[in-house]
């Protein structure tokens, strides 16, 4: 399952990670809204720097590691349960916990339109990267391409949130996505050869922003 994808696998990956896939990803910002409120992200360059840091040193790196672990363990119910529990335990705030759990459950419900025994091996409470990684493996979607698409979708969603928060325009958002492409590719290759011992992060401001968002009065996003 580590080689190139066939057309059917590609079409499924495109569907699962499309903004139109009904998981409610548009409602979450992963703490970005609070970072904008606190002046940590002020413009398009700040948004790109924020996303680069979260990719390399924050929650998206951990998500990539968990995604690849779930991909490798897709046939092992016990290992999937352990990965899911670890993914939920790593959530640094109530909102981040609710975000990954809500997206994970919604993904499983929607992706069940493509039946596969892997759904029976996943626990009821499953974080988003574990859900997508296991289902991708079950449907023979290659690991590197699957996690790259997952990270690209996460970045695209954050760019969209940044546009809604008025720190970047549409053209700037597209340019950010284009510039982060090489970083996403390299990170996907690294994550595919990683293990659970590689979990960890140092994006302290992002974690604090996520915590502070819980008490933010006026907001557009749930995290």
Features:
223 residues, Urease accessory protein UreF, mainly alpha
Structure in words:
65% of the residues lie in helices and 0% in strands. It has 12 helices and no strands. The chain has one domain (7-18, 28-212): Urease accessory protein UreF, CATH 1.10.4190.10. The chain is globular and about 45 Å long. It starts with 6 loop residues before the first helix and ends in a 10-residue tail after the last helix. By secondary structure, the chain is an all-alpha fold. α8 packs antiparallel against α9. The protein has helices at 7-16, 32-37, 44-57, 59-72, 77-89, 94-111, 118-121, 128-138, 143-164, 170-179, 181-192, 204-213.
Break the fold down into its secondary structure elements and pairings.
Elements: H1 7-16, H2 32-37, H3 44-57, H4 59-72, H5 77-89, H6 94-111, H7 118-121, H8 128-138, H9 143-164, H10 170-179, H11 181-192, H12 204-213
Helix pairs in contact: 3-4, 3-9, 4-5, 4-8, 4-9, 4-11, 5-8, 6-8, 8-9, 9-10, 9-11
How would you classify the quaternary structure?
A: single chain
* β-sheet strand percentage: under 5%
Q: Quick one: overall form?
A: globular
| Topology order in helix (H) and strand (E) letters | HHHHHHHHHHHH
CATH topology: Urease accessory protein UreF
* Structural Rg: 16 Å
Please, how many domains?
Answer: 1
CATH architecture: Orthogonal Bundle
Mean pLDDT: 96
Span between termini: 35 Å
CATH H-level superfamily title: Urease accessory protein UreF
User: Which sheet architecture does the biggest sheet show?
Assistant: none
Roughly how much helix do the residues carry, as a percent range? Answer: 55-70%
Q: Which structural category do the helix and sheet elements fall into?
A: mainly alpha
Regions with pLDDT < 50 over 5+ consecutive residues? none
CATH class: Mainly Alpha
Q: How many H/I helices?
A: 12
**Number of DSSP E strands:** 0
């Amino acid at each position: 399952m580590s080689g190139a994808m066939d057309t059917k696998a590609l079409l499924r990956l495109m569907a699962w990670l499309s903004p139109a896939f009904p998981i409610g990803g548009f409602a979450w910002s992963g703490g970005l809204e609070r970072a904008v409120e606190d002046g940590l992200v002020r413009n398009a360059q700040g948004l790109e720097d924020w996303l680069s840091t979260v990719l390399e040193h924050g929650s998206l790196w951990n998500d990539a590691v968990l995604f690849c672990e779930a991909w490798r363990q897709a046939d092992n119910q016990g290992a999937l349960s352990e990965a899911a529990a670890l993914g939920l335990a790593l959530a640094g705030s109530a909102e981040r916990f609710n975000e990954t759990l809500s997206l994970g459950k919604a993904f499983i419900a929607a992706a069940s339109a493509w039946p596969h025994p892997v759904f029976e091996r996943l626990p009821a409470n499953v974080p988003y990267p574990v859900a997508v990684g296991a289902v991708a493996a079950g449907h023979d979607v290659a690991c590197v391409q699957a996690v790259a698409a997952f990270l690209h979708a996460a970045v695209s969603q954050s760019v969209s949130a940044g546009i809604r928060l008025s720190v970047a325009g549409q053209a700037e958002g597209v340019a950010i996505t284009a510039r982060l492409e090489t970083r996403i590719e390299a990170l996907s290759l690294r994550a595919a050869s990683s293990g659970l011992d590689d979990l960890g992060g140092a994006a302290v401001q992002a974690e604090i922003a996520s915590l502070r968002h819980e008490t933010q009065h006026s907001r557009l996003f749930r995290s």
